[in-house]
Every structure is written in structure tokens, then in C-alpha cells.
Amino acid sequence: MDIIKKIIRSAAFLAGLAVILAVTSVIMKPRNAVYNAVGVDNKTKDLKKEAEQSIDLVFFGDSESYSAFNPLQMFKEQGYTSYVCGTSLQRLCDTYALMEEFFSKQSPKVVVLETNCLFRFSGTHEDDSDAVMNAFSKVIPVLKYHDRWKTYIPLKVYTNKDENDSRFKGFRYRTACEPYTGGQWMHETEKVARMGENTEEYLKKIKKYTEEKGAALILVSVPSPDNWSYAKHNAVEKIAEEYGLEFLDMNLMQDEIDIDWTKETKDGGNHLNFAGAKKVSSYLGEYLSEKFSLPDHREEPAYDNWKKDVENSGMDI
User: Fold this and answer.
1) Is residue 87 part of a domain?
2) Where are the alpha helices (DSSP H) in the chain?
């Protein structure tokens, strides 16, 4: 009898565990095919705070994008509205998912893709090399997406992370400084860096999607000695020519943008701080406004909330 009781208890435990895994898998599995589900979820929440059909231009990319592009500054200086859909270590599968979310409520004329993410594995969790985990997670998705619990509670409950991206239209306002002292990093070469796995596949999808939506797609590389090289420039230039995309490499525009690497980088040449972003946003803001004839909303009452956001930002822009 004791053996039978143990068998029954074990069976009941396994049945309960199966139910828990099944329910949590339904809850935790992302709606879209993504890699960084938490990052995509949090950015999607932020996007819903923006008025529908109110954004003229959108930025995508990894942390280089949200460290360099300041939508409030561009609005103050040029008058058009923009939003940074950058997420940390963004893969192109996440870019594509966020693009679909963004275009469901907005109709921007221009899409800017910061190019550092082109050199990272671009596929979803189901595309990665962990075959054993993939096999299990197809049946039990919670095994790979268990950390999505974070998106169901307020961000500050589980982290001290600053929520600048929602208050500043996706831009991260950071004034910390760690100088870069490595000197010139763009040494001309014929070498071509290897792009991340699945990059070309996703870039084709992104290009096709933006064309279907009537938006122009432009590739932009922000100044970053720690991340960028001439070999990467050559790789992006090659694929941009192949797909008929404009490519603006700001690493080759040091005279025009004039970043002071002793003061205007947050972490030794990896990301720009606010002072560096101010220069990039000023140059790029004017460039995009002129090239794409973006509208000036500064005198329109419907955009008074943007004026208030600029005034209340606390940023010297």
C-alpha cells in the first residue's frame, strides 16, 4: 500500500508540474518571434504611451542608438517628431518585431537603423545553436522565456534601472564620462568584416516591410571607437549598395561632428554621453530634415505636449 501511495503522490506531483509548466508557457511565450523578449516587451509598453499617428521618424538599433539619438533635441531644433526603438544588444529579429508594433499605431516617413546590430546574431531563440534547449522549449516555451515575469510588474520593483527611455522618447540621458584615449580608429583597409548570422535575411525583410509601408530606410553608424572599424564600414557599404540603401557613417565625419573623446563618451569610446549625443543629434537632425522634407510641428497646437516635454526634460538642449 505504501508503494501505491508513493506512486500516486509522484503521479499527482508530475501532473501538477505539467499543468504549471503548460500554463506558464502560454503566459510567457512571446506573441512575436524575438530573441530579447523582455526588451521587446518593455519597449512595446513605452510605444503605447505615444499618441497614434504622431511620429514622423523612428530609430532602431542597440544601445548605440539610444545613446546617440535625442528626439526632444531634434524636435526643438527641427520641429519633427521621432522615437528611439533601441534596446540593449538588439538583434534584427527584435528590430523587425518592434517595427511591426510601431507601424501598427504610427506611419513614419523615415526609418533609421543604427548598424552595430548588423554584426550580431540576428535570429530568434529558435534559430540559435542550442539544439537540446530548442527541442525542449518548443514543447515547454517557459524554459527559454522564464524571465518575462519581469514585464508583468512595474520595472522599479525588481531593478534600479532608470526609465529614461519612456520619458525622453527612447533616448537615454547620461552624463557620466570615461575618456577614450586610443586615437584614430578608422584605418582604411580593403578588409570586409563578417556580419552576424541571419543578418541578410532579416535586412531583406526589414527593407521589404518599410517599402510596403511607404517609409524610407537609411543605415546610420554613430561614432564609436570601441565598436566600429573600417572593415565594418566596408561590410555595411557593400550591403547598402546591394540593396539600394543610403548609408551614413558618422565615424568618417569627425571633422563635421567633432566629438571630444576626452569628454563626450560615457565609457571609453563605446557609447556617447549626453554631450556627444547632442552633437550627433544636431548634425543628423538637420540632415534628415532636409533630405526627407520632414514637417515642422513647433507651431501646431496638437504638438504642445512635445514643447512641454522639451521644457521639462532638464536637458540643456
Assistant:
1) yes
2) 2-28, 37-47, 63-68, 71-78, 92-103, 131-139, 142-145, 155-158, 164-167, 199-212, 230-243, 254-257, 274-292, 304-312
The CA–CA distances, whole Å, from 282 to 130, 215, 265 equal 43, 22, 16
Half-sphere exposure at residue 132, Cβ-oriented, CA atoms within 13 angstroms = 0
List, for the chain, all residue ranges whose pLDDT scores fall below the cut of 50: 16-30, 131-133, 135-137, 139-140, 142-152, 155-163
Percent helix / strand / coil, the chain, rounded to 5: 50, 10, 40
Distance in angstroms (rounded) separating the CA atoms of residues 222 and 75: 19
The tens digit of pLDDT for each residue in 199-209 reads 999 999 999 99
Our count of domains for the chain comes to 1
User: Which pLDDT score, from 0 to 100, does residue 35 have?
Assistant: 85
- 16 part of a folded domain: no
For residue 290, being part of any structural domain is answered with: yes
pLDDT digits 0-9 by tens, 153-171:
554 443 444 445 578 999 9
| 71-87 tens-digit pLDDT | 999 999 999 999 999 99
Contact assessment for residue 67 and residue 14, using Cβ atoms and an 8 Å cutoff: no
Residue 184 lies in a domain: yes
Residue ranges making up the domain that contains 225: 34-128+154-312
pLDDT for res 142: 42
Decide if 113 contacts 69 (C-beta within 8 A): no
Q: What does the alpha-carbon distance between residue 38 and residue 149 come to, in Å, rounded to a whole number?
A: 9
Task: For residue 45, give the CATH number of its domain.
Answer: 3.40.50.1110
